[in-house]
Amino acid sequence: MSNSNPPLITHIYTADPSAHVFNNKLYIYPSHDRETDIQFNDNGDQYDMADYHVFSMDSISGPVTDHGVVLGLSGVPWASKQLWAPDAATKNGKYYLYLPARDHDGIFRIGVAVADKPEGPFTAQKSYIAGSYSIDPASFVDDDGKAYLYFGGIWGGQLQYGPQEPSGENVVALHPRVAQLTDDMLGFATPVQELVILDEAGGSPLKADDHERRFFEASWMHKYNGTYYFSYSTGDTHYIAYATGESPLGPFRYRGRILEPVLGWTTHHSIVEFGGRWWIFYHDCELSKGVSHLRSVKVREIGYDDQGDIYLVD
């Protein structure tokens, strides 16, 4: 997969790409990996990112423009460290960057920053979104104008209560979280709720020990032919999987995998339509020769079959 598919960005390390089309141009909102001496651990302390860049492309095959640092840690008053995977949205003529970071008590929260242009610069709100927690925000504005924020990550992402994810026979997996956003996109309009992912038959929620299918992190929502597609990383098994539903709030039924494991420990993606075709943006560690916290953004084309199942286009 990797050799025929070079990194899009090579002058810095980038990961967790959130891709969106704004004003007929493709924008990528990734996290920005940097080299540190922090030892690798399951809390992800080695992922010590401190700022965000925005990138844009006029075509998938064309050059990538780096718009530079659009927000740094010093510009986020409530955050102490670790500006992890962000996402972006537009509504009411403004652009919103949703970002997770540890607050001054070391707890992961999700904040929002606002800009007049998709390439920023972004100005962070003084505090994080009330009621927010964990990591990996993914925003989705539906056709009716209602907007939602999906989030959650276990282990270092603090979605679980206590140090370990649940386990045991018939123990239900931890589900991602979702809340409807207020009209100004700056807060939650509804209580945070679980986004339930059911098995293929739609009968019962995925189980905690079903590591090949259960949610771990990296929420993403997109819509195709009126169906809602929720995709995510299985984490320690390194798949990008997806489930479909009839409502942005679920429930969702597991459908299968999109991406097999890439080189590196993490996998994190986004899916977007651009130029009349569909694309999955993701990252791997090819450029850093396997150094797991130094990742690079890539892209591949995807398609849909008659049943709406997703497949990779060769």
TrEMBL record:
UniProt keywords, alphabetically? Glycosidase, Hydrolase, Signal
Q: Which InterPro entries match?
A: Glyco_hydro_43 (IPR006710), Glyco_hydro_beta-prop_sf (IPR023296), Glycosyl_Hydrlase_43_Enz (IPR052176)
Offer an example of a GO molecular function term for this protein: hydrolase activity, hydrolyzing O-glycosyl compounds
Can you tell which superkingdom this protein's organism belongs to? Eukaryota
For whether the record's keyword set contains Transferase, the answer is no
Q: Where is this site: Important for catalytic activity, responsible for pKa modulation of the active site Glu and correct orientation of both the proton donor and substrate?
A: D136
User: By its UniProt entry, which Pfam families does this protein fall under?
Assistant: Glyco_hydro_43 (PF04616)
Q: Does the keyword Hydrolase apply?
A: yes
- Alphabetical GO biological process terms: carbohydrate metabolic process
> According to its UniProt record, which protein family does this protein belong to?
Belongs to the glycosyl hydrolase 43 family.
- Could you identify this protein by its name? Alpha-N-arabinofuranosidase
